[in-house]
Queue: 2 jobs
Job 1
Amino acid sequence: MEVHNVEIVMSAVSPSQYPTDGQPEFALVGRSNVGKSSLTNTLINRKGLARTSSQPGKTQTLNFYHVEETFYFVDVPGYGYAKVSKKKREAFGQMIETYISTRKQLRGVIALVDARHAPSQEDVMMYQWLDYYNIPILVVATKSDKIARGKFNQAESIIKKALEFNPENSTFQFFSSQTKAGKDEVWQWIESHM
Ligand code: GDP
């Protein structure tokens, strides 16, 4: 998709502030610093629209970006700074959990992991939680420009194994906001789930 028109519609702190037009939504989740703002800005051809790195301890809000007046990207706060507790449901806010598990308009979740490393415990927990709810998931392995050519298969295997990747609802894609590698594939996935 060639994007010309994006609006930040709102930062929602409660469900009453979510959009009410029923258009499709795609959530983006990942640890702070994984490259979520960079991915978002690459997809929508903007330099600085999506904010970089949510600050630790900041009030958690869902940011809705209205794209071409047809669907929304929903930026979910980075989870890297939250202390992980034993129970999955305590690992991130109740608001986010409720949003992801009950939102009818949610067509899929783009779950970002760093292509260079094995997924963190939190990445694994997030993925498995999404899988449990049988949500279509696009696992995007970011910063792929930092991976040597010969190491792609290995990196993909490590990530999939750690996540217990489920091909029935999940797709895997390398991505680089520097080279834009993977951009078309990410758009294809979004459009095929619209
Ligand atoms: P966020 O906290 O998840 O929104 O992460 P950002 O998009 O702000 O990126 C965090 C850092 O990683 C920044 O310094 C980015 O420049 C860098 N970064 C993001 N994407 C890429 C990428 O594809 N390749 C490389 N080499 N660096 C990236």
Job 2
Amino acid sequence: MPALLPRPSILSIEPYVGGESKIPGVNRIVKLSSNEGAFGVPPAAQAAYATLAAELHRYPDGHATALREAIGARFGLDPARIVCGNGSDEIIQHIILAYGGEGTELVMSAHGFVMYEVSGRYAGCQVIKVPERNLTADVDAMLAAVGPRTRLMFLANPNNPTGSMLPAAEVARLRAGLREDVLLVLDSAYAEYVTRPDYDPGTALVEAGTNTVMTRTFSKVFGLGGIRLGWCYAPPHVIDILNRVRGPFNVNAPAMVAGIGALAEPGWVETSVAHNDAWRARLSDGLRAAGITVHPSEGNFILADFGTAERAKAADAALKARGLIVRMMHSYDLPQALRITIGTAEDCGMVLDALTAFMRG
Ligand code: PMP
């Protein structure tokens, strides 16, 4: 009897690890491992979510019209060029399955966001990981990696897990150097947290051509990771393709109302970003003063480098002993590093205390 097997490329995918919220034997944990917003769920999102309980027998609006209009109004975008998804992960997967597949190549930077590789292999693409400079995507190397079979290029900007950011001029140079038949996906999941003035989340590049897509999420600054809501802004022909392949009800009804509520919460993004700015700097400086290498970050997390995998593992254990869960970076080929989400002031203080004590050894 022949064995039942999936396509071979699928067997090379490692199951996703992350999101743990328990440490055996520890009662009070602080989860700083998934780059979730520091302030919980926006109250307006919670209130909107709660109103929906008696309506759950109804299918959601398959076009997510009210949500797309709210996103369009907030970001100054045409709602007709927006598609929403079950997290931006879903949109990334649809884009790759629609435009990639067997016989094509997907180009990403060496430490780019992990789901590009997972979905790329799922689709059967050859995934090309391009060496970086100082843990930052290298535009010349990315362009040099493009071959005749390349159909997709992904750039998370800022990138998770490195926190690095490419300036607008570099992103524009990347787009300008690509053929028309290569779709550039700019993943701007952490856009709101960027404070450098030379940043562009990708809106203008989407509008300027026919082959650039920007993806965004409600999981980070908008505090809705649990509800799974993301969206993309894309040229009309890409929107048409995504509307053909996505599930008819891929965004659930509570997600839509919660997303609209989060967008309406007064001052939410401003407060979150000001907090993130202040504590990203304090935590980075404090860890550097303790002797840890911290990469510059434009996201709501930092990458702390302990020099060796053994030291990183020991640092992780020291954090866990105090109930602090951060992310080990084996799956990103950075076993010497830990990624730490910027939490509340108290969370950051606990991380600083624990790692300062660890370094004093
Ligand atoms: N892109 C990047 C760069 C991310 O870090 C994440 C979340 N870890 C995502 C996309 C996916 O976000 P979501 O599916 O929650 O929208």
